[in-house]
Task: structure prediction
Amino acid sequence: MAPGKVLGSGTTLDTARFRALLGRKLGVDPHHVHAYVLGEHGDSEVLAWSQVTIGGMSLSEFAERRKVPFNDEDRAAIDHGVRRAAYHIIEGKGATYYGIGSALARITDAITNDERAILTVCAPTADVAGVKDVTVALPRLVGGDGLLDTFMQPLNSEEEDALHRSAQIVRDAITSLGF
Result:
């Protein structure tokens, strides 16, 4: 894949929130939580639960080993916390510019320092979950030359369907603009 120069912040902030909430629940530094939020930045975003790893272990293995109860209610609370965080912040501060500023600074660091970081930024993509020519957030390798690679996740069928719906929402918006 040729390096790409066009990218958006995607779900970088949502992914950071997902990792932070998981880390808090599991009692581990979020830097050791690998988890991604995919698709559009918005209500249809997809938390890729099936791909969560901590210390090289699946979420369920890690929780069991650490004897941390983790159930559907915990998933729902974290999902809600990720999706609704912006609304809480706007309610309290009136805006979310500090969070997105932090995410943009992270992306900028990855590019200017050629960090080759995997970030959930968005970029034009030929096919995402069966939706053609769409721009959504996926884990992508970001470095000094911009976007270096995209890593499609091996999602379960429910997540794949949700990513298709999310990508279709974005594709419909692009089409409505005449593109």
Summary: The two ends are 23 Å apart (CA to CA).
